[in-house]
Amino acid sequence: MSRLPSIRWGILGTARIASRVVGPAIRAAEGSQLAAIASRSPERAEAWAGEHGAERSYVGYEALLDDPAIDAVYIPLPPSLHAEWTIRAAERGKHVLCEKPLAPSLAEAEQMTAACRRHGVQFMDGQHWLHHPRTTDMRARILGGELGVVRRVTSAFAWNWDELVLDDLRMQRALGGGSLLDLGWYCVTAALWAFDAMPERVWATGRYVNDVDVSLSAVLWFPGDRVASFDCAFDLMLRKWFEIAGNRGSLVCDDFPRAWNIDKPRFWIHGGEGKASEHVAAPLVQEVCMIEAFTRGIRSGTLNEDWPRQAVDVQRVCDALDRAARSGSVVNL
After folding, report:
1. Within 10 Å of residue 297's Cβ, how many Cβ atoms?
2. Beta-carbon neighbour count of residue 76 at 10 Å?
3. Is 321 helix (H, G, I), strand (E, B) or coil?
4. C-alpha angle 213/214/218, rounded to 5°?
5. 6 to each of 29, 63, 69, how far by Cα in Å?
6. 188 C-beta neighbours (distance < 10 Å), count
7. Is 243 exposed, middle or buried (0-12, 13-18, 19+ CB in 10 A)?
8. For a tag site, which of 109, 208, 209, 302 has the least CB within 10 Å?
9. pLDDT, tens digit, for every residue of 316-329?
């Protein structure tokens, strides 16, 4: 039996997440090859390639996109650059894995996915946790009726910035900053994933510095009298949990974006009488799971339309939440 050729990856930019997380995942994933890195600095590109095992380096992102040997690109650039480089990659026939948030605005997010669809390339946003076996296990518990009728999703994602760094991209609205897009993105995803639906209306309130939400609390109302709520912040201790509650039980995961201990990715099912059962999923690296899922999608020859749709849905809800928080009113979707 002949072996399928590896998907050859290029990375646009030497961001920390590319160095520490996704670059190593590409090298470790079955069927993937870290072929190239691009940077605006020749010294940085060459040094990154040598340190992280990329086969070649390019000065400038265009040069990498013009390489016919590259099949897919990973884009860890600031959100304000995602639309431009996703569209350019799609025009050159490259499949795109793009970091979240997709863009500073819904309009740009829609342009990105439309370009990928038009040019017949796969698009996915970089939410690693969705591709881990633990997420599959939790979904099975929800669909299997163990929680009864699921009516409430509550979540939080926050980390503490002792002193706000105003020139950081997360503190620049034009660059796609703010706790909602940086951290709340995961909480919105969790609600849409758990309910498998879009909310009908949303409300939010935030604390703003430099025209950026450094903390935000939100409520989302879904069809069927279902409600989700979450908070996200740059000024609280690290919290990254959700609870999915039904009329018979609740599912709690205290580290859903990334397991505290990757060798023990756990969650709990709680009953109504103080009893809880712990469940542990396969100890796989979620970023590797994501790369392998993306690779399988490309090799299938059929575009997965759910991935771009789900990413745009999250951006749509975040856009509505931003408008709700700034206007102080409920926003209908």
Report:
1. 18
2. 21
3. helix
4. 65
5. 10, 21, 11
6. 28
7. middle
8. 302
9. 999 999 999 999 99
Q: Where are the alpha helices (DSSP H) in the chain?
A: 16-17, 23-28, 42-52, 61-65, 79-91, 106-118, 133-143, 179, 185-195, 286-300, 306-327
pLDDT at residue 2, rounded to an integer: 43
- From residue 325, give the alpha-carbon distance in Å to each of 154, 179, 321: 18, 12, 6
Residue 282 near residue 156, CB atoms below 8 Å = no
Break the chain down into helix, strand, coil percent, rounded to 5: 40, 30, 30
Q: What is the DSSP string of 290-315?
A: HHHHHHHHHHHTS--SHHHHHHHHHH
Q: What is the pTM of this model?
A: 0.96
Report the pLDDT value the prediction gives residue 3, as an integer from 0 to 100: 63
Which pair of tokens denotes residue 233?
Answer: 């912040």
Return all residues near 268 (Cβ < 8 A) that are at least 6 apart. 251, 252, 253, 276, 277, 278, 279
Please report where in the chains the tokens 């950026």 appear, as a residue.
212
pLDDT (average), residues 202-219? 98
Length of the chain in terms of residues written: 333
* Residue 289 φ/ψ, nearest 5 degrees: -60, -40
How many CB atoms lie under 10 A from the CB of residue 100?
21
**CA separation for the pair 264, 49 (Å, rounded):** 32
pLDDT tens for residues 283-303? 999 999 999 999 999 999 999
* CA dist., res. 303 & res. 211, Å (int): 38
Summarize the confidence of residues 146-170 as an average pLDDT.
95
